[in-house]
Design brief:
The chain is 90% helix and 0% strand. The protein has 58 residues and is mainly alpha-helical.
């Protein structure tokens, strides 16, 4: 399950970056903001998974 979450986080980060760049290129501030939000969501999900891995018993 953790691998799925990590993959989802990377996907959100990548999709967010694309939206952010495209929004900036075409001057669409709404798309750019949506991209930043999605990228941040991916960053938070990735951070959550790192914390879970750190406290997981070895």
């Amino acid at each position: 399950m953790a691998a799925d979450e990590k993959m989802q986080a990377k996907g959100e980060q990548a999709e967010g970056k694309v939206k952010k760049v495209v929004g900036g290129a075409v001057g669409n501030e709404s798309l750019r903001a949506e991209g930043r939000a999605e990228e941040t969501k991916g960053d938070l999900r990735e951070g959550k998974e790192k914390v879970k891995d750190a406290i997981k018993p070895q």
